[in-house]
Amino acid sequence: MHTSDIRSSLWTDTAIDTPITPSLKEERRADAIVIGGGYTGLSAALHLAERGADAVLLEAQTAGFGASGRNNGQVIPTYTRHSPDDVVREFGPEQGERMNAWVAGSADLVFDLIRRHGIDCDAAQNGWLQPAHAISRMAGVQAKHDQWAARGAPVEMVDRDRTAELTGSPIYHGGWLHRSGGHIQPLSFARGMAKAAIDAGAAIHCESPAIELRRDGNGWLVMTPHGSVRTQSVLLATNAYTDQLWPGLSRSIVPVRSFHIATAPLSANVAATILPQGQGFSDTRQALWAFRQDRNRRLITTCMPVTTFGVRGTLRRSTLKRLHEAFPQISGTEFDYIWECKVAMTIDRLPRYHELAPGLCAGLGYSGRGIAIGTAMGKFLAERVSGGADIDPPIPSTPVQGLPLHDLIVPLSRILVLYYRWRDYRA
Ligand SMILES: Cc1cc2nc3c(=O)[nH]c(=O)nc-3n(C[C@H](O)[C@H](O)[C@H](O)COP(=O)(O)OP(=O)(O)OC[C@H]3O[C@@H](n4cnc5c(N)ncnc54)[C@H](O)[C@@H]3O)c2cc1C
Questions:
Q1: What are the beta bridge partners of residue 259?
Q2: Which residue from 81, 100, 74 is spatially nearest to 140, judged by alpha carbons?
Q3: What whole-number distance in Å separates Cα of residue 222 and Cα of residue 213?
Q4: Most confident region among 201-210, 294-303, 308-317 by mean pLDDT
Q5: Whose CA is nearest to atom 15 of ligand 1?
Q6: H or E stretch including 360?
Q7: Which atom of ligand 1 lies closest to the CA of 39?
Q8: Pick from 42, 320, 324, 392: most CB atoms within 10 A?
């Protein structure tokens, strides 16, 4: 079994090759610098280059090293917790509906990019499903469906029998299906976007951490260990891997350590009964149950452990229990891969856009919905930088708010998983 980080994750073993991205070893100028080589940063670099800007992307490790190369791969054009009406209540009709339209279109953006650039990432835009794990959650499911439907999103309710048919699991009470969602091989999508950005003219430098960011006349100077770039515009796209480059930004989100576990390939007979139409799903539990298959019939699920002590043994036991509960047709399977990464949660589970200083902005905090929304954020950041202030932000810019007792929140977030499990159980 492969049990370490990205270097032995399932996605690394099955991804397309990464393009050549030499580390920065010179002093140069650029129209814009993007810091962070996940979906947000790669999408920003690609869209900047497509708009004719001279864009440089700096990534501390490799393209897709962060959550972008290690997630579950479900492309989800909805909020983690909010319904569209919640967003209108929070931001008012004009801003709220702008944000709703932006989120609704985010999955189409991902699949359009994949098609347009011929990215080989096992993409399937065949819907994303959210089944209700308790009858009491059906009202919320219905409300989300109705509100998105009222805005023209391609959604449908699925009753109990059809949910069982689509998931292959007998435990759900019904659910809703978002037809513009789907799934991808996450690392291949990141690497494919990196290649597309390079082809469009962007310079991508991996193993080039930005170690200092400072004012340089009217612009900015970004230093790496062996080079530097001067620019007018800097986009921070570091999400859960945000370090101390910009004061306070890392304390505005909660980086939660999360794991994935992938089974050995299921037998063809069993695999045909699980998610037979190829969708992925994340159910209504707060302590998330998310499942999908890869192209080799491995079943992949996400887990948030309560303790990190002896985590791999615990995860194997708890995942086996979960699999048997959700899919009784699986009798005793081996796990081939366990890998981990960090998800950037915000307190209200809404993403953040910050205009930090003239010519410096950041997008982060997708709370488990960053494939579609992070890619859309990168496009918006690119438009904002190259199109100027007249582009209306889909999310209002807010000041960075450091979370009180941040050092405590991070370990406490694990305990919160226990609370979520209790609530899920009570539901
Ligand atoms: C377990 C798990 C499952 C998930 N499943 C899903 C899912 O199914 N669907 C979905 O939509 N979302 C999912 N997500 C969330 C999604 O993966 C993220 O929201 C998304 O990948 C964020 O992309 P990003 O580009 O903003 O950040 P990242 O991909 O994390 O990239 C940030 C990059 O910044 C780099 N960096 C940091 N500091 C510096 C620096 N100083 N200089 C240079 N580079 C720097 C890091 O090395 C990193 O590569 C999941 C997340 C986790 C953890």
A1: 303, 340
A2: 81
A3: 5
A4: 201-210
A5: 368
A6: strand 360-364
A7: 25
A8: 42
- Closest atom of ligand 1 to CA, residue 190: 29
Alpha-carbon distance values, 218 to 58, 357, 360 (Å): 21, 11, 11
> What's the pLDDT at 4?
46
Q: Can you tell me the mean pLDDT for 68-77?
A: 97
| DSSP H or E segment with residue 167 | helix 160-167
Distance, CA of 23 to CA of 59 (rounded, Å): 9
Residue 59, burial from CB neighbour count under 10 angstroms (0-12, 13-18, 19+)? buried
Q: Phi/psi zone of residue 104: left (φ > 0), alpha (ψ -120 to 50 degrees), beta?
A: alpha
User: What type of residue sits at position 71?
Assistant: N
**Ligand 1: which of 43, 58, 72, 187 to mutate, judged by most atoms within 8 Å of the beta carbon?**
72
pLDDT for residue 184 is more than 90: yes
Ligand 1 geometric centre to CA of 230 (Å)? 26
Return the percent helix, strand and coil in the chain, to nearest 5.
Answer: 35, 25, 40
User: Which of 241, 337, 395, 414 maximizes ligand 1 atoms within 8 Å of its Cβ, making it the mutation to test the pocket?
Assistant: 241
In which element (H, E) is residue 258 found? strand 254-263
Chain segment 312-325, per-residue pLDDT in tens: 777 888 888 889 89
In whole angstroms, what is the distance from residue 42 CA to residue 378 CA?
Answer: 7
Tally DSSP H helices, then E strands, for the chain.
Answer: 12, 20
Please name the residue that has the structure tokens 């993409």: 123
Ligand 1 mean position, distance from CA 239 (Å): 6
The pLDDT of residue 392: 86
Prediction pTM value: 0.95
CA distance linking residue 14 with residue 188, whole number of Å: 8
366 within 8 A of 374, measured Cβ to Cβ: yes
Residues lining ligand 1, Cβ inside 6 A: 35-41, 58-61, 65-68, 71-74, 76, 209-210, 237-241, 243, 245, 258, 260, 302, 341-343, 364, 366, 368-372, 374
pLDDT digits (tens, 9 = 90+) for 6-40: 456 999 999 999 999 999 999 999 999 999 999 99
Q: Has residue 2 got a pLDDT over 60? A: no
* Cβ pair 182, 109 in contact under 8 A: no
Structural domains in the chain, CATH included, are 6-410 (3.50.50.60)
C-alpha 238 – ligand 1 centre gap (Å): 7
